[in-house]
Every structure is written in C-alpha cells, then in structure tokens.
C-alpha cells in the first residue's frame, strides 16, 4: 500500500488539534490520531470503493487498518476502540491479562535491581521477590482457567449507555476487564512486594524510602511504562490498550498505607513475618543524627525489654502506630534515660550560660575550663537543634524551578504525544527554550540583599539590634558602634539576655503552633527520676512538655518524617508498658516497697564457710 498524500488544512483536528492530514480515497484523516475530518472532502471518488463491501474504512470516522498491514502499539501511535477488528472477547481478555501481568513482573524486577545496584540492598531480595509475587498472583485468582469467563459474565450487566453499537459494547467490556485487573492486582503492589522483600532480607529500608524513591522517579514506577515495549515487546492485536493506559500509576500510596498493603499481601499468602530489624534501623538513625554509637546497646536493651507488638507489620489497616514510629519512640526513651532529659531546664540554662560567658569575656575575666569533653546533655541538645535546622525532608525535584520543570517533563508528562508539528508542542518547546536561555541571566536575589527599610511590617521582628525608648526622646535604633555610648549596661549582658528571652519566646510560639504547651523547668523535686507526661483535653488534646523533651521530639520526628504528636503518643504508650512491666516484676520478686521505690537496694555479702 503506497504512502498517502499529506496536506495541511486550516481547520484542525477535533480530537488532537493537529493541522496535518493524509488524503486517502476521498477523505482526509488526521496524521496524528487517524480521525476523519468533517470540514473537507475530496471529489471524483467512487463511493462504492469507500463504503461498499470489503471497504477499508468504517462508518465511525476512523480508518480501519488493512489485514496485512503491520500495526505498532507504541504510545506514539494511539489507537481507538473500533479502529480495527478484534478477535473474540475471551481472547482479548486473556491477552490483556498476560500483558498486564508480564508488565508488572518486569516493573518488580527492575525495582529490585535498582534497590540492589543503587541503594546497596542485599541481592537476596531478588530471590525473595519472585516467590512472593507468584504466591500473590495465585491468591488473586487471575491465573485461573475460568477467570475470563467470570469477568465477561459480569460485563453483561454493564451495557453501553445510550448506544447499542457493537464497538461501544466492546469498549465497555474492555474497560471492565482492565478495571478488574487493576483492582485484583494494583500497580502499587509492586512497591509493596519490594518493601516486603527488603523487610525479609533484614535491610533497614523504610516505607518512607520506597515512597520517596518512587516519587522522585529513582525507583521504576511512575514513568516506567515508556520502557515497557523494550521488555515485553509490542502489544498483540488482541490487546487494544496502550502502555500509558495499562501501566501508568494513578496514585502513590503513603508510607503507612504501603506498610498496610505489604501486611495484607503477607497475610494472603500465609507468610509469617519477623519484626522490624531494630538494630539496623536504630544504627542508621544514630549515624544520621551523628550521635555516639554507645547509645545503641542501651536502646537494644530497652527493645528486648519491651518487644512491642507494633514492630510486626500488621494488616489491620492504619490502626496503632507505624513500625518506624515505634523504633523512634524506643530511641527517645533511651536518650531520656541516658542523658536525664526530665525537665531540669538544660536548654534554658544554656541560654543563660551564653550570656555569662560573653560577660566574662567582655570584662576580661578568665574562665575556668570546667567543660568536659564527654558527650553530655547540652551537647546532645545542640546536635538535635542543628539536625532539625539543616536536615532536608523535601524531594530532590523541589530544589529549584529548573529541577521541577525537568521532573514534570520527564516524569509527570512522560508518554504524551511529542510531534513537533503540533501547535501545543511547538509552544511548549518555545517556552522551554526561552526559559533555558534566560535562566542564567536572572538576578541573583537573596534575602540578605533585600532592603526592608521602607516596608511596614506589622508583626514582631526578631533581630540583634536593641531599641531603647524613653519619655524625652523617640525610639532610637542602636547598632554595634553606638551601643557602648548610649547603653549604661555592658553590651553583651543586655544583648545576650534579650537574645535568651527571644529564643524562649520563639520556643513557646513554635510549641503552641504544634499543639504543645511549654512547661517551665522543675526547680524542686522530691525525688529525681523519669518523668511521664500526660495529655490534657480541652475541646482538643494539648501536650504539656518541657523544652528539652520538645527539642528531642522535634528532631527525631522530622528525621522519621512523622507528626510530632503521633511520635509523642507512641512514646507515652511505650512508657506505660514499661511501667506495667516494672510493676509486674516488682510484684513477682516480692521486693519490699520501701526498697523498690527508694534508692538502690543494699548489697549483702555472705560467707561460704
């Protein structure tokens, strides 16, 4: 069959907006999507050749492919229902099932390969993912002989609305087959099986890692459908759906939902899961926090003491606490016990300590070197504040506009038609060229270069300048060069005290924003020990905590990518369990009350003679 004549018409295609058409036997057809135009028709054509018996074209305004013509199934050549004759519907259902399952299996294999090569996960996950995948397919019933007949029986109750055309009925049936496949085996099940394989291999891979890598297109998921033809070949004639339709995900699960899906898959196939590898996950987080590794054995002791059931992946839905939250709660309890974070005001003392040291330096006094080189509570809080300030929790594609535009082009809009003849694609290319040309010539605007002198900002501003106001003179802003002349007090004493007050106000304001209430440090206490906080409910829950504990909770919640209140609730739950265990042990050992709650029990020595 010879090549058709190409012509450009003024009236664009009603489906895709293309202006390039092909002339074939009296009608003009869109070169992009094959739709016949209604505005233009060629003359001197025998109508029997067009609409007679054995004609190559249907009455649905789309060209019908000749029987001996090779038909490609790539995403660059979209096809519509009714554009060519299909085999019987059972053959179509089996072909769609085979291609869908092959595509998901290839996606799972590539995910395991990326985890192994890029993120240095143990190669044993490749041997675990295969049996889990096949067992999961067996439980869904998709591979049964009568699956296609059962699906087609359900399709009889879904006739095409407002039309009795055969092609419309086929379209409804094919859509129902596809929906049944995606409902039985969702595309996101590949991510759940990948996470499940890492969990069985005792790797410190968290659900948040899998979700983040999938969103950033580092793990084959969002745009992998573009490469499907390279792995499983072109679609057969019995499979009328494109790769973009079959294998493009419509949603990305949250980390908690991914953990729930993995638990349901394990429950379906009868797989007994071990608990989370606490040692590996805790070691990973301690390294990210730059904390001493001496903490890890103590944390493992608390873990072995508790053995919380929440560390097993559950299929009960989003009930309880995620596994990573429970691991982080154990670390919080361990750090509180080791560094005595129990409301003694270490953070508030550090604010006053800065002022005292600066005052001594200004007066020329020599300070005694009493600071210890050990990692103490003050050093721990300093590290945690730095972690909260500098840790990055946003995705890589949100760094700047250039990165986000490339992410949108390569991931979000992947697989769309990119014919340079289309007007919309020409416009996109022109805008992209303008952006790439001008992005290097943009002004480098930084916050420190902005001048807010003439701005009327109606909010409280925190800066290092001091404003002194008296009755006889207006408010005067004092800078470093004029401070010593106009201020009778030592500069560092006033400046540092004000800075400490501002830091305390900031802390109170931030805690209130996060539904926490600031508690002043404890000055007097009958007995030193572990403090357990409680929740107060006044229309909503309020969490009253000390600043030291809040700094610890804030940094660890940001690292675990979880809300602080959820992490606090999990910590309170584990503390109650620890209290209950200690009470049971005290009862079973029959230790006197005055000795168990007072100081340590006196040692008694016995002679063997």
UniProtKB/TrEMBL annotation:
Keywords: DNA-binding, Metal-binding, Nucleus, Transcription, Transcription regulation, Zinc, Zinc-finger. This is TATA box-binding protein-associated factor RNA polymerase I subunit B. Pfam families: Rrn7_cyclin_C, Rrn7_cyclin_N. The lineage of its organism: Eukaryota, Viridiplantae, Streptophyta, Embryophyta, Tracheophyta. Residues 104-223 form the Rrn7/TAF1B N-terminal cyclin domain. The keyword Zinc applies. One of its GO terms (biological process) is nucleolar large rRNA transcription by RNA polymerase I. It comes from the Eukaryota. It is found in: Nucleus, Nucleolus. It comes from Rhynchospora pubera. Belongs to the RRN7/TAF1B family. GO terms for molecular function: RNA polymerase I core promoter sequence-specific DNA binding; zinc ion binding. Residues 258-355 form the Rrn7/TAF1B C-terminal cyclin domain. Its main location: nucleus. GO terms for cellular component: RNA polymerase I core factor complex.
């Amino acid at each position: 069959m010879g090549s058709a004549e190409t012509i450009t018409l003024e009236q664009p295609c009603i489906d895709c907006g293309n202006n390039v058409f092909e002339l074939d036997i009296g009608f003009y057809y869109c070169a992009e999507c094959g739709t016949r135009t209604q505005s233009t028709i060629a003359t001197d054509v025998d109508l029997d050749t067009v609409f007679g018996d054995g004609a190559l074209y249907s009455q649905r305004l789309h060209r019908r492919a000749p029987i001996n013509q090779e038909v490609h199934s790539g995403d660059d050549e979209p096809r519509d229902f009714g554009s060519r004759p299909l085999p019987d519907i059972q053959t179509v259902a089996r072909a769609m099932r085979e291609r869908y399952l092959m595509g998901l299996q290839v996606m799972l294999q590539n995910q395991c390969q990326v985890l192994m090569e890029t993120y240095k996960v143990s190669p044993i996950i490749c041997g675990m993912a295969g049996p889990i995948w096949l067992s999961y397919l067996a439980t869904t019933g998709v591979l049964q002989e009568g699956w296609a007949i059962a699906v087609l029986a359900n399709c009889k109750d879904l006739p095409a609305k407002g039309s009795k055309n055969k092609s419309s009925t086929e379209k409804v049936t094919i859509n129902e087959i596809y929906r049944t496949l995606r409902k039985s085996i969702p595309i996101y099940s590949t991510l759940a099986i990948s996470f499940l394989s890492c969990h069985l291999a005792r790797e410190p891979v968290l659900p948040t890692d899998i979700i983040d890598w999938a969103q950033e297109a580092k793990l084959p998921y969002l745009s992998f459908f573009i490469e499907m033809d390279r792995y499983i070949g072109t679609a057969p004639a019995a499979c009328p759906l494109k790769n973009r339709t079959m294998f493009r995900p419509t949603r990305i699960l949250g980390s908690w939902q991914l953990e729930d899906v993995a638990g349901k898959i394990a429950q379906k196939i009868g797989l007994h899961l071990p608990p989370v590898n606490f040692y590996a996950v805790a070691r990973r987080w301690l390294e990210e926090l730059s904390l001493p590794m001496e903490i890890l054995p103590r944390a493992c002791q608390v873990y072995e003491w508790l053995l919380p059931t929440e560390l097993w992946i559950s299929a009960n839905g989003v009930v309880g606490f995620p596994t990573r939250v429970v691991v982080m709660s154990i670390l919080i309890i361990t750090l509180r016990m080791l560094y005595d974070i129990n409301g003694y005001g270490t953070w508030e003392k550090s604010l006053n300590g800065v002022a005292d040291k600066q005052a001594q330096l200004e007066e020329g006094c020599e300070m005694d070197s009493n600071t210890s080189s050990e990692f103490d509570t003050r050093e721990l809080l300093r590290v945690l504040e730095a972690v909260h300030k500098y840790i990055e929790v946003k995705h890589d594609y949100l760094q700047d506009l250039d990165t986000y535009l490339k992410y949108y082009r390569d991931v979000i809009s992947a697989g769309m038609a990119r014919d340079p003849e289309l007007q919309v694609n020409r416009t996109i290319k022109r805008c992209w060229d303008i952006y790439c040309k001008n992005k290097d010539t943009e002004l480098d605007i930084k916050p420190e270069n902005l001048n807010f002198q003439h701005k009327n900002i109606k909010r409280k501003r925190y800066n290092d300048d001091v404003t002194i106001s008296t009755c006889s003179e207006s408010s005067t802003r004092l800078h470093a060069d004029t401070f010593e002349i106009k201020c009778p007090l030592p500069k560092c004493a006033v400046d540092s005290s004000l800075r400490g007050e501002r830091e305390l106000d900031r802390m109170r304001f931030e805690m209130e924003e996060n539904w926490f209430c600031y508690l002043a440090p404890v000055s007097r206490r009958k007995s030193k020990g572990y403090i357990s906080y409680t929740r107060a409910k006044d229309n909503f829950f309020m969490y009253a905590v000390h600043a030291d504990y809040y700094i610890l909770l804030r940094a660890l919640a940001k690292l675990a990518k979880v809300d602080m209140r959820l992490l606090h609730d999990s910590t309170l739950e584990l503390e109650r369990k620890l209290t209950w265990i200690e009470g049971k042990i005290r009862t079973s050992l029959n230790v006197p009350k005055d000795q168990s709650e007072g100081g340590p029990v006196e040692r008694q020595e016995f002679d063997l003679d």
